[in-house]
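> @MW can you paste both from yesterday?
MW: sure, first one:
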Amino acid sequence: MKKQKGFSLIELLIVVAIILIIAAIAIPNLIRSKMAANEASAVASLRTINTGEVTYNNTYPGSFASLLQLGPAAATCGIPSSANACLIDNLLSHAATAGTAKSGYTFQVTNTASTYSTDAEPGAPGSTGTRGFCSDQNLVLFYLPVGTTLGACVAGASGTFPL
């Protein structure tokens, strides 16, 4: 009789068990890395909005812009104006109105003639991010615990912590 070649059922089960153990260790780390990347993207987006607001206020004195006013009217930028200044990208400027999020975060700008504040909140807290972020015309970025209401960002307000 010839000796059979191949793996036994026990050997295959041991290999599958080892793969499952490695996956159980790796997947949570991957999720945490994705959330950290989303948070870094949200902070960078708030810095972009801050730069856009300062530029808008210098170009059109006496006013700050909404997200739509900071971005282009369409996917590409035409001639900049006070209604569509082309200072931020289309994805970020239309994130608030289209119901979409950029890197798992939704953005909001609250503006008046003399002030503005920006907020970034995770779309799915605990899944896309663990903290919200905000800034205002002082250009200081703060982080907010998840669940803090949007618009709560003012320098020194309780519940906000500088980055």
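MW: second:
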Amino acid sequence: MAEENTTETTEETPAAPAAEPDTGTDDWAAALDDQNKDDGAPASFDELGNGAAVGDEEANNLDFLLDIPLKVTVELGNTSMIINDMLQLSQGSVVELNKGAGEPVEIFVNNKLLGKGEVIVVNDRFGVRITEIISQAERIKNMG
């Protein structure tokens, strides 16, 4: 019969650290006390520039933005149709759009409306002559 060697090991668990006082409540109380104090002095704020003048150094910092590519899209018109009608389309089919010939087309930059224009042909290529650019306020409104 084989002998078994058994050794017993005992591991001590480290004692839990002593509880620290809860300072979070004291911090909030101090902050509320500071907020409730009214020394009568008005708040002071730094003056903001009018933004009209941009220094040469600031202009040079913005030059890198001039090389960012933008996606320009011209929408001739649109329509809606049911799936059955779409499946019946074949080469040579005509899809009627909601705009008539000669009506202004919308010009989008990065999917945001920029203005309106008219379709022109130059050297067998289509182009758009911009006839109207929406106001800056409208462009900002369309961004949201």
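> thanks! The mean pLDDT is 76.
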